[in-house]
Design goal:
heterodimer; A: mainly alpha; 6 strands; B: alpha+beta; two-stranded antiparallel ribbon; 7 helices
């Protein structure tokens, strides 16, 4: 339980703490790692030489993300009615699906909740409870995809020393989440929706482009030239909402301490590196750990890990099979 | 006088403190921007919202903006594609559906007001929740009868309130009032709007340009009106004291906008005023 609480607090903005208690299994591995130095180097070199090439998880994820968004588009354009609506609210084969954060904005602003709204929101909560909360971000959100491209450009420019990453206090996202909720309640308007690049992009894809894309371009420029993944990391309340949904999700990135060489490649590619604090030397409190609630389950770390220490996993499933 | 300089702190510590302070200021600035920029969404309200005609069954404007989830499902089910979504220049109205009657009106081709059925949040609704009041004159005296299904067992649309009201805003340009007839395509042959003519096809709307008219006294707004008893061509007293023919709007008008779409004068003589209610000046 305390581990879930810890992951929640880290998501809300607290810096990850060094663990004070270790399981005996973790203790043993940490100790052995300190002792067997020579063997260690050889193993590392071997793993690096034989590591899987390519980015299979990124490719799968992009295919899924583009597929889902295209399904919205063709459902309308070709009138095949599989997935009608936009990401804020839709019908999948007639069943209501409603984005949790959009639903929250509407409920707070309008102060009246109809049955369909509850059904649709409940379905989506259940869905992402099973499939990992912020998986929504990396596997569905169209802004995430363009932000990834912007991130690549940012990293390229940073390498050329033309830009540098400006970080913020992560707690600001929590503050903004509360403020956006309060603004909806007080003003009676869905204030956040005006700026939500997720909603804007989804609607632009389905119903055609508009001026609002200018706002998305500004956000991308902010991320390219000023702050790496700034919107997703420090602002977006949708991400935090799905983060809450995914606190107890069984779908996770599983970290196996024994396999890890503590080289930190994973943290370099991670959108939310604080969830990978556990991969630092001596920071894992157990032999097997989760990445935690703020993890978007994008699989970038799985792709880059040379030693198979990070893997997709469904909790409990391995025991059943 | 004490000229002793303050003891220099360790340069590294100083640098870290400086960076911490910069980070804090950046964060405050980011928070301010993230809150301030969306509140710019209020500006269209400050200059008075553009009075948009909303789809049938829409709640009152403020409630409509707060309850709409901006998904466009209403857009997708409309058989004549009358519904469009607003852009970011409408502030909080972004992604909210509206109808531009002049370019494509709602002609109730769907028979059942599909957009209301599609709406997941009740922003478009048959049954307004009790705690929301009804503006005087917005309530329909009777459920409006749709002429296309007048012979059906259930001939009415379940609309409780009107979305607007047709008004003859330019009587001087109205062809009927000038005693003129009309021949040809109502809006010219380039016009893209479509609508249903039950005598052509009960289930399929056709381009307005493919349904030319030939009338001795123009009564296009009357003959295309989909609602029973909403508008008629009556004899009225003209400005010069003579009796003339003129379209007259009656209480059953729901504000669908078909008359505005078909009016052959340019600019249109009759418009649907969004949110206008019956009997209220």
């Amino acid at each position: 339980m305390s581990r879930y609480f810890e992951s929640l607090m880290v998501m809300l903005g607290r810096e990850p703490r060094k663990p004070t208690k270790f399981t005996s299994a973790a203790d043993t591995i940490h100790t052995l790692k300190r002792v067997e130095k020579v063997d260690w180097v050889a193993q590392k070199e071997h793993a690096r030489a034989h590591r899987a090439q390519g980015k299979p998880w990124r490719n799968r994820r992009w295919a899924f993300l583009i597929g889902i968004n295209l399904l919205f588009v063709v459902s309308f354009w070709l009138d095949i009615q599989i997935l009608e609506g936009a990401l804020t609210a839709s019908r999948l084969l007639g069943f209501h699906m409603i984005d949790v954060n959009s639903a929250l904005q509407v409920m707070l602003a309008h102060k009246h909740i109809i049955v369909n709204l509850i059904i649709g929101t409940g379905t989506v909560v259940l869905l992402w409870l099973l499939f990992g909360g912020r998986s929504f971000c990396s596997w569905v959100c169209p802004y995430h995809l363009v932000a990834e491209w912007a991130e690549n450009l940012h990293l390229y420019l940073a390498e050329k020393k033309l830009v540098s990453d400006h970080t913020f206090n992560r707690g600001v996202r929590t503050v903004l989440w509360v403020v956006f909720a309060a603004l909806a309640w007080v003003t009676g308007y869905t204030v956040f929706e005006t700026l939500s690049p997720t909603g804007i992009l989804s609607r632009a894809l389905i119903y055609g482009p508009g001026l609002a894309l200018g706002w998305v371009a500004l956000l991308l420029a902010f991320e390219i030239f000023y702050s790496r993944r700034g919107w997703c990391r420090y602002v977006c309340p949708i991400g935090l909402t799905y983060g809450f949904v995914g606190v107890f999700s069984p779908l996770r990135i599983k970290y196996t301490l024994n396999n890890c060489f503590h080289e930190g490649d994973c943290r370099k590619v991670c959108e939310v590196p604080h969830v990978l604090e556990i991969v630092k030397k001596g920071r894992a409190s157990d032999a097997i750990m989760d990445t935690g609630a703020d993890c978007t389950r994008c699989g970038a770390c799985v792709d880059v890990c040379p030693s198979g220490a990070l893997k997709f996993d469904v909790k409990g499933l391995s025991k059943l099979v | 006088m004490n000229t002793e300089k303050p003891k220099p702190t360790h340069p590294l510590v100083n640098k870290r403190k400086l960076e911490d302070r910069r980070r804090f200021l950046r964060t405050v600035f980011l928070a301010g921007a993230a809150i301030g920029i969306p509140l710019l969404g209020l500006t269209p309200m400050a200059r008075g919202w553009e009075s948009r005609l909303r789809p049938p069954g829409a709640l009152d404007e403020k409630d409509f903006l707060s309850s709409c989830i901006k998904c466009g499902q209403c857009v997708q089910v409309c058989p004549v594609l009358a519904i469009k979504l607003d852009d970011i220049d409408q502030g909080f109205g972004i992604g909210v559906p509206y109808i531009d009657s002049r370019s494509q009106a709602c002609d109730f081709s769907c028979d059942a007001v599909q957009c209301i059925l599609a709406c997941p949040t009740g922003a478009l609704t048959y049954h307004k929740p009790d705690f929301l009041g009804v503006r005087p004159g917005a309530k329909m005296a009777q459920p409006p009868v749709l002429l296309a299904k007048e012979k059906d067992p259930e001939p009415t649309l379940n609309l409780a309130e009107r979305t607007g009201l047709a008004v003859l805003v330019r009587p001087e340009s109205c062809l009927a009032r000038q005693g003129k007839g009309f021949k040809g395509a109502a809006r010219g042959t380039d016009f893209k709007g479509i609508m249903r003519f039950t005598e052509v096809d009960r289930w399929k709307p056709i381009p307005l340009k493919d349904h030319p008219f030939d009338v001795e006294v123009c009564d296009l707004c009357v003959r295309t009106c989909p609602i029973k008893g909403a508008i008629s061509l009556d004899s009225v007293l003209g400005d010069d004291g003579k009796m003339i023919k003129s379209p007259v709007v009656h209480e059953p008008c729901v504000g669908c906008g078909v008359c505005e779409m078909v009016c052959p004068t340019e600019p249109t003589s009759i418009v649907v005023e969004a949110r206008k209610t019956w009997g209220v000046a």
